[in-house]
């Protein structure tokens, strides 16, 4: 049963919101903004505006039980509340924004999006990155092991590892090219130098809602309800640092210099109509173990796109160039719920504001690859850009953007808003 | 130059503190305690007592600039202050506790240690675990690659990886045996079952002080000043889960079900006399790269011990059995400062209250091994305990304790206090 907040005919009275590419009234994402040097406040996005929810709550226009959580500078408290509270918030916002007679009450709290600053939406407790993009894992594996690209555990275990929470930043934050230890395969010794193989990774981020105590696994049937919402996530990767450091304990400095997320949380409630049956597993693949066996529709009908715009392209007035396009449903071997259930299956405690990355979401075709490592075949096949430049990996001044959109026949499609980062040169003084 | 707080002749007037094994007046560790259901408060330990520093500060008996930080329920704010503030605190505490005429002022804030509860001393931002114990890395490597135990990067890179901050607990918290995916090397398929190869890892923990912004590396000359203090850390490890899951991104559920730390922070100031020249690197080892080249005395004269007491031993009134003994100076290929400088060398931001583990600190001899994986040679050589039981890995009811002591001729030795955990059985309902 789909509730009326998903009715594709619904429209907001806010100018420009009806048919907005990302933020029609069916989306109602949650985020944090500020004006000038003002305090950080919780908001939703509607068309080209942000709506100050703290202000609305102060006026008594939102459910009273939410006022304390909406007065915070992050979404953590709001996502610690029961899901029913966020459902109530969605219904209240939908009513305020779709019903013309609420215009007077709401308008004082609307601000043009281009006049505000968006911030990281949570104080992140822990950040974990998964590796559920099977086409990515296969493509990367092929570069190392052409005959046996996927490791034996891949189809049994949703592979994941811990990332660095402190260096997660919101879209738009410049990404400084890191220094690190690099060693070419044929070099006698490593050197300390700026990264030469700087890459992006197209991922979805899952924001955890609620809390489970240490020692209390999350049953697979409850796992989707522990996801408060989604964002885009760019797991910037220094491939040359990674190649030299990652044995035997995994990537470390190759990743933790920066991770970028999109500012808006596309809520689990907004995504409800876009959960579909996962693709059939190939014949011969093992069935998921009982603790990972999800009944129903766990896959996400989300299309994905990556664009690149270099400094020269900006100067020449050329638009961003599409590097790849694909979709999450096809890319993910394990669903969002399976990721959560696996993470907590040993009793690990997950908390509101924890961030889980899916891993790079590449599709099965070359044009749907979610990283330059794949698109340039490990740096061997340069990509030609409009204007004639070529790239194997990212150059200084390059601006990389991730885009996502939940799309399904019969529903208003909703966008995530971009996840952007521009590469700043390595600092000479780090030597 | 050694300041007077390290004078070995100094004694506290607090009963039982003079010559106390762990907490003489030369130690003055920092921690967090509560009484009954009371609030968490910052304290130091002196002999068999804890001294309530929030209470002393309320009375105006401590430097005024520290009052706000000392009124917090964690040490984070205190360790965000400049090092000079923690030095001033140490000197003030030393004066109050060594000078008989302060007895009246101090006594109301003293509580018997056995009447209080100790808590996690920080709200941990990020937790990173390193792998700088070269004898451990060699011994573990030998189990997999007898001819080539150390990977080529080991002597160039202080290997580290991210851990889980949410599941770090204070000494004494029970450790529940985790469930996980296990696969014996000769099994056709993995199974989901309680861990059968549960192990400890003896580590030191480094608590970060101060903050560096993202993009601002920490020069090696400043790196020691970013360490606020040390603790003991038990990186509990499910070896069978680890063996199946860890390729290619490193250990995950094998580790994040629990990590135990000792409650007291042995401050960098208390440890100053125990920093000595590191052992000479073997002939032929590469020199550290410039960003890792530490001048002076970066090694730690800290002796380490692991003890085990089983349920049967407790029932029979047998004392804990010493499993291993060694020292940090001999075990660590990279120093604490090198760990910090490397972590931030790509611009990664470190913050007050971050926790860095050293990795397992095994010495070069069999009796100094910091894990059962090493002591039992991968489970092939059972250890016989007093009372006749044997162990390869940990059994339910086993209590594992880590101990550490900074020791140097001419100085009062100072102890860390134990880092304890008892194994609770796997929960049947997790199946």
UniProtKB/TrEMBL annotation, chains A, B:
Tell me its EC number(s), please.
3.7.1.2
Task: Please name the source species.
Answer: Novosphingobium pokkalii
Kindly give the InterPro entries that the UniProt entry links to this protein. Answer: Fumarylacetoacetase, Fumarylacetoacetase-like_C, Fumarylacetoacetase_C_sf, Fumarylacetoacetase_N, Fumarylacetoacetase_N_sf
Q: What's the short name of a Pfam family annotated to this entry?
A: FAA_hydrolase_N
- Molecular function terms in GO for this entry? fumarylacetoacetase activity
Fumarylacetoacetase-like C-terminal domain: residues covered: 155-414
Gene name of this polypeptide: fahA
* Keywords carried by this UniProt record: Calcium, Hydrolase, Magnesium, Metal-binding, Phenylalanine catabolism, Tyrosine catabolism
Q: In which pathway does it act?
A: Amino-acid degradation; L-phenylalanine degradation; acetoacetate and fumarate from L-phenylalanine: step 6/6
Q: Which cofactor does it need?
A: Mg(2+); Ca(2+)
The chain positions of domain Fumarylacetoacetase N-terminal read 26-120
Q: What is this protein called?
A: fumarylacetoacetase
């Amino acid at each position: 049963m789909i509730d009326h907040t998903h009715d594709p005919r619904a429209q907001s009275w806010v100018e420009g919101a009806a048919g907005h590419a990302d933020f029609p009234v069916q989306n109602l994402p949650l985020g944090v903004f500020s004006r000038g040097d003002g305090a950080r406040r919780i908001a939703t996005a509607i068309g080209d505006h942000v709506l100050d929810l703290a202000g609305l709550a102060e006026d008594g226009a939102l459910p009273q039980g939410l006022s304390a959580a909406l007065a915070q500078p992050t979404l953590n408290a709001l996502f610690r509340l029961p899901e029913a509270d966020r459902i109530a918030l969605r219904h209240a916002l939908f009513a305020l924004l779709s019903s013309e007679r609420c215009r007077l009450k709401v308008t004082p709290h609307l601000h043009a999006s281009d006049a505000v600053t968006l911030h990281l939406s949570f104080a992140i407790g822990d950040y974990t990155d998964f590796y559920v993009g099977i086409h990515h894992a296969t493509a990367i594996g092929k570069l190392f092991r052409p005959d046996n690209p996927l490791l034996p555990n891949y189809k049994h275990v949703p592979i994941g590892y811990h990332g660095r929470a402190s260096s997660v930043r919101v879209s738009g934050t410049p990404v400084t090219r890191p220094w690190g230890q690099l060693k070419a395969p044929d070099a006698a010794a490593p050197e300390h130098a700026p990264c030469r193989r700087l890459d992006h990774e197209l991922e979805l981020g899952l924001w955890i809602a609620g809390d489970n105590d240490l020692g209390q696994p999350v049953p697979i049937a409850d796992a989707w309800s522990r996801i408060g919402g989604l964002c885009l996530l760019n797991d910037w990767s220094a491939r040359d640092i990674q190649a030299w450091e990652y044995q035997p304990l995994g990537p470390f400095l190759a990743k933790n210099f920066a991770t970028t997320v999109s500012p808006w949380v596309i809520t689990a409630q907004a995504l409800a109509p876009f959960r579909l049956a996962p693709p059939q597993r190939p014949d011969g693949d093992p069935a998921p173990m009982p603790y990972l066996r999800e009944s129903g529709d766990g896959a996400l009908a989300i299309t994905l796109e990556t664009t690149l715009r270099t400094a020269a392209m900006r100067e020449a007035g050329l638009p961003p160039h599409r590097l790849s396009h694909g979709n999450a449903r096809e890319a993910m071997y394990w669903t969002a719920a399976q990721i959560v259930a696996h993470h907590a299956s040993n009793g690990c405690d997950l908390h509101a504001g924890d961030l889980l990355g899916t891993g790079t979401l590449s599709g099965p075709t070359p044009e749907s690859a979610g990283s330059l490592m794949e698109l340039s075949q490990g740096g061997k096949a340069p990509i030609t850009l409009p204007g004639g430049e070529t790239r194997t990996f990212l150059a200084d001044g390059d601006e990389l953007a991730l885009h996502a959109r939940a799309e399904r026949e019969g529903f208003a499609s909703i966008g995530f808003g971009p996840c952007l980062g521009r590469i700043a040169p390595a600092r000479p003084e780090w030597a």
